[in-house]
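Reviewers of the previous submission asked for a worked example of the structure-prediction workflow described in the proposal, so we include one complete record here. The input consisted solely of the amino acid sequence. No template or homolog information was supplied to the procedure at any stage.
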Amino acid sequence: METPVKYNINLDVKYPHQELIDIPSIIAANKEKWFNQTLSQVNESVVRIGIVEGEFHWHKHDNDDEFFFVLEGQLLIDLEDKTIELNPMQGTTITKGVMHRPRAPKKTVMLMVETSSIAPTGD
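From that input alone, the workflow returned the following structure tokens.
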């Protein structure tokens, strides 16, 4: 039986406006399998970085759409009827209320845009 991945999800806004966000240094400093950090708030939404490897659990967001954009690696997003494969410089939006499970077969770096009130682990 596979050991469940521990999620490290940080909802605090790490960088105020007009401050440089250096993605390569964030990647280099990360040593975890499933790391998520809110980088910045843009109006009522936030931009988060995910540095992930392994599977997240099946979940949905009843009131929030969620945008994923892959910088490095590969992200597979399982839906009930298909899997969306995202490779570097590809993205997709998951509609609110849609059951999904993100998973990364290898270390993957992605950006996510979602409302600041979203519960990243689902509703």
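The chain has one helix and eight strands. We consider this example representative of the routine output the project will generate in years two and three.
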